[in-house]
Write a structure and sequence with these properties.
Blueprint: E1 3-8, E2 23-24, E3 27-28, H1 29-39, E4 43-48, H2 51-59, E5 63-66, H3 74-82, E6 89-93, H4 104-115, E7 119-126, E8 130-132, E9 135-137, E10 149-160, H5 161-167, E11 176-179, H6 191-201, E12 216-220, H7 231-235, E13 239-242, H8 246-253, E14 260-263, H9 266-270, H10 274-277, H11 279-282, E15 287-290, H12 295-304
Parallel strand pairs: 1-4, 1-6, 4-5, 7-11, 12-13, 12-14, 14-15
Antiparallel strand pairs: 2-3, 6-10, 7-10, 8-9
Length: 309
């Protein structure tokens, strides 16, 4: 069953201007939803009317569709994406809710397929205390509550394409709710909410709720004697450090969370002092790869610097 994740990332926002493109914990806000979809094994499709969003999608090889904003309904966005992208089921990931439980989207998709449901959604589990349909509902204890209210938190929804095309709706009476705990249920609509949610996202207790970003760092030389063309590989990296310009080492690698570093000119790299090489930073990198012609040098250096990579 082919599944896509639709990420609506319009350029305009009245209460929080440019929020989808604004840096959130080091990345444009909408890209956190892209990374989440990829981590869940689902292809992200960004729907946008913004040329800046499109430029970022092209830069990162993320598929996108141009949206004509005829109205502000989600159905309008989904309808335009489905007209261009084939799928059997789709999820909608709103970029304004960047914090998500890892694995939740996979569980929702699997359950819909296994149980034959048309849709599912992430929700807050609320105990009704207050006015509802003209009656005051009161329950002090959970066990005294005859019913619960599952409030769609706007974070994740899953719908079968056939159901949407026949009804124009994202949900049905049998939609299954999946409880999303704090702070995943929070959304960004205002400047204050943007600042508050970013503050929460940086807290140690909630770091796991942002999708892990694997960074590819390439350390290369400006020397002309390379016999192989590395241009495609270099273009695929997040950070490119040229060892003949030591200021790049100071500004682009130190302090960054780095999961993969690729060293394509290890001999020249070793010619610099230990302080200049920032070995302490590379020691924290789980995987360091070297070119075959410098393996003997890299092994010797890793032993000397106590690098087990």
């Amino acid at each position: 069953m082919k599944t896509i994740a639709i990420i609506p990332a319009k350029g305009f926002s009245s209460r929080c201007p440019g929020k989808n493109l604004r840096p959130f914990c080091g990345l444009p806000l909408f890209l956190h939803s892209v990374l989440y979809a990829q981590a869940e094994g689902v292809e992200p499709i960004v729907s946008t009317d913004s040329e800046e969003v499109i430029a970022l999608c092209r830069e990162r090889n993320v598929r996108f569709t141009r949206e004509s904003v005829n109205d502000s309904t989600m159905a309008n966005c989904v309808r335009q994406v489905l007209a261009q992208i084939p799928c059997d089921m789709f999820a909608v990931l709103l970029p304004t809710s960047p914090l998500r439980q890892p694995g939740l989207l996979r569980r929702m998709l699997a359950a819909c397929a296994e149980e034959g449901r048309e849709s599912a959604f992430s929700a807050q589990n609320i105990k009704p205390i207050g006015q509802l349909d003209g009656k005051f509902r009161l329950a002090y204890r959970d066990q005294d509550t005859p019913s619960r209210f599952y409030f769609f938190d706007g974070n994740i929804s899953v719908t079968k394409r056939s159901f949407f095309e026949s009804t124009g709706e994202l949900f049905d009476q049998d939609s299954r709710p999946y409880t999303h705990e704090f702070p995943c249920s929070l959304q960004i609509d205002t400047e204050e909410e943007f600042a508050a949610l970013e503050h929460l996202a940086r807290h140690a207790s909630f770091l796991h709720l942002l999708p892990r970003r694997v960074r590819r760092v390439c350390i290369i030389s400006n020397r002309p004697w390379f016999t192989r063309d590395y241009s495609d590989f270099v273009d695929s990296c997040d950070v490119v450090i040229r060892v003949s310009k030591m200021d790049n080492l100071d500004t682009q690698l130190t302090g960054s969370r780095t999961d993969i570093a690729v060293v394509s000119c290890w001999q020249m790299y070793l010619s610099f002092s230990r302080e200049q090489r920032h070995t302490d930073v590379l020691r924290k990198v789980p995987h360091v790869f070297f070119l075959p012609d410098s393996v003997h040098l890299s092994e010797q250096h890793c032993r000397a610097e106590k690098m087990a990579n």
